[in-house]
Structures are given as C-alpha cells and as structure tokens.
Design a protein that fits this description.
- The protein has about 500 residues and is of the alpha/beta class.
- About 40% of the residues lie in helices and about 15% in strands.
- The chain contains 17 helices and 18 strands.
- An eleven-stranded mixed β-sheet has the order 1-9-18-17-16-15-14-13-10-11-12, sandwiched between helices. A seven-stranded parallel β-sheet has the order 4-3-2-5-6-7-8, with helices on both faces.
- Strand 10, helix 9 and strand 11 form a beta-alpha-beta unit.
- Helix 2 crosses helix 3 and helix 9 packs across helix 15.
- It is elongated and about 85 Å long.
Amino acid sequence: MKILNTEQLREADRITIERQGITSWQLMERASTQLFLWIEKHLPEAQSFCIMAGVGNNGGDGLALARILLQSGKQVSVYLVQFSEQLSADCQANLHLLEELHLPIHPITAENASTITLQGEVIVDAIFGVGLNRPVPTWVQSVFERINSAGAYVVSVDMPSGVYTDKATPDPFVKPSVVLTFQTPKLPLLLPQTGVHIPRWEALDIGLDTDFIASLSTDFTYLTEEIVTPLRKVRNKFAHKGTFGHALLIGGSYGKIGAVVLSATAALRIGTGLVTALIPRCGYPILQTAVPEAMVLTSDKKKHINTITVPFQPSAIGVGVGLGKHPDTAEALFELFDLYAQVPFVIDADALNLLAQHNEAQTKIPRSAILTPHPKELERLIGSWNDDFEKIEKAKTFALKHSIILIVKGAHTLITDGVHCWLNSSGNVGMATGGSGDVLTGILTGLRAQGYSPLEAALLGVFEHGRRGDAVAQRIGEEALIARDLAGSCFSL
C-alpha cells in the first residue's frame, strides 16, 4: 500500500473529483459518512460527541460528521477553532447546514481558549488535517492540550491535529485514542516519535481514484500481505534438500549459544535445505542436542570465535548473533568478509557492533548484504539523529553508500535499499523480547540461501517474522510470547 505525501494526497482528491464527476463537497460527504459508519460499528454505546473543527477542509469533515451524528439522534456539541477568519468553501457549507438544524456553534479564539470546557464521551479532533506544515499559535496548542487532558475517547480525523505529514512534528499535538485516516496510511502514524502517541489507526476507503494512486511513484510503502504473497516461491515436487540451499550461521560465545539455536531453528523452519552453525567449542553439545537437524562446526577457542574455516561453499551466510566482541572475533569477521564477499550475507548484532567499532572495516561490507540493526545498533553505525525523518535519511544514505539492504528493527520495522522505504504492517509489542532478532536473522539467511534476492528476502522475511508474532500473540497473548515461539512453531511460507 503506497504512503502518499501531502502534495500527492491533494492531487488524488483533485483527480478523483474530476474523473468521478463529483464536487469536493460530495467527496467530503463520502468521507464523513465513512467516519460515521466506523463510529457506529466501533463505538455503538457512545451517545455524546464533542466536535472540534478547524476552518479548513478537515474542519469541514468534522462539521459534516456532526450533522450526521445529530440526525442519528446523538448528543452533539460543536466548537469551531478559529485560527483563521477565512473558512474553506466546503467547511462554510457544512457550517451553514448545521446552523439550519439550529445546532449552536461555539467559537474558540485566542481570547477564550483558556476558558473552554470540553464535554462528551467522544471528542472528534478535526482541527487540522494533512496540510499542516508550520507551527500553530500558542493558544491553539493549548486547545490540543485540553483535548489530551479531557479524559474522553479521542478520534482524530485523517491526522492528529498538530502533526506534520512530511516532516518532524514539534510538541504539542493531539494524542488520540484512534486516527481514522483517509484511503492510505500517513507516514507519521508509523514512526516512533509520533506513533508512540497513536495507539490505533485505521485507513477508511473514501473511493479515491485507484488508477491514479497506482500510477504514483512514492518514497514509502506500507508492507502488507498483498505485497509479499507474489514473492513466495512455489516448490517443485521433484526438488531435494540441495535445491533449497545451504545456510551457514556464524555466531555464539560463552553464555550466548542460545542465539544460534534460535537462528538455526528459524533458518530450518523457513525451508532451508541444509543449515550449518559455526560456533565456539563450548556450544557444540548444545547445538547438536537442541537442533539435531543442523550440522555444527567449531572454532579453535572454547568461549569465542577466533577462526572461521568452512569446508563447503555456503549458499548464504548469517553472522553476528551472540557473537561477542573479542578482538580475535573481529579479526575473523573481517577476514570472512574478504574471503566470501560474493556470498549473500545477513549481518546482525555483534557483527554490526564490531563494524561500528572499526569504521575502516565498513568498506568490507559485502555488496547486497542485509544488515539488521535495532535502533541502538543503527545509531552506532550511522550516528545520532534529531528526529525520525533525519534517521530515515541517514539510514538511506548508509544503505546507498554500501549497496546494501538495511532493516531497522522496531514497531513497523523499516526496510530500505537506499532509495525506497517499506514499513512493515505485521508484528506486535510481544516481540520485544530477547532472541526475536536472532530468529529474524535465521529467517533472512534461510531465504537468501533458497535464492531469494536481497530485497525479496528482506520484505518477505520481515513480514513473515511479524506474522508469526501475531499468530503466537493471538494464541497465548503478547506478554507470554518468547523468541522460541517464533523460531520453533510449525510455520511455513
């Protein structure tokens, strides 16, 4: 699903009106009807509504919703936040219709903003939409804070008021219970700094022209089942284990052999034909017992990897899980990159930390490798950032510079090839548990071993990882989820 920017959203509205032969007011009616239907379905017991409307088209959506709610028998109060004396034409039209129904409209201005009292089970935030791109007056910010402190269920229309669509957002802004956005997700709903204040959002289909949206080139995509399904390879009944590749997983150190157990199990469960783990000697009996389907090689040292000798040609290499940062290990890692530069790589955990510690070694990162940092590991690699938008630009620059795929793990895990970004739709907070990333490394390495391209493996692997997490959470709850559930459960592509 494409994530559109402000300019594209406006153009989508214009094209829809033109091609469908409707007016902008009719499109607004369509949007407000969808809002009402959602409220009827999800908030059927709510009887009192407080509509906070601005003077633009987002406010017009709110006023139209107020009229529909009123006509359905709900108790409705309306506040018009007059940050401008000019109302958009459609907002003015909906205001006139409410006046004809004799519903009082309470104006909010700089003079009375500090005195208003908001009442209602549900507050509908329709002050600003996707077009906001500059700071709002202090008195309007105080209205945001009153909404946030009202103790009501807050529904934001299209975007939380105060949030910018295409750049970083300063506080304060409305922090809603749910955002009902139109047609497509908006980027700030998916990013940590704003998304942490948005527990839920839903895209409502208002019938924007699908052909036009399909024709658009976007910088961001919301990664869904519809995107990954065509990527899945169909297995030939005459295939054998050699058909599905031989994955080599390199990692583990004293006390962290479990990371390799999880990763190797995940690589097997994703369908890899053969899996070999190369670990320090202390992990040999553990791996042979815990993952009997995997083969095991050991380094010379007992507690950490100091040598990497591989007696076969791996189809893909995953390195870093539980690896540790011993100087011997760093030397072996960088030699590995030199020797196997043409082999598909997945690089995670301490392998990333060693690269961050030795900047000069970053030139050794194999082209087309998949790197999977969590936010702190990412910061060590690319430096700190001031906001999510700067983080994304730095991540893209790093990926492009090294010709890699970069996966930034977290809620709505971000994948970039340096040009485009995908944000994942699957997964849940229960996956914030030790070992979850080790499972992802195994999945990705297994997919690369089976012949998936770097981008295909990243998109499919990240989505599948989250899908498994969702299935487990649905069965036993988010709190009970552990990484072993993601690696060892009977899942398949």
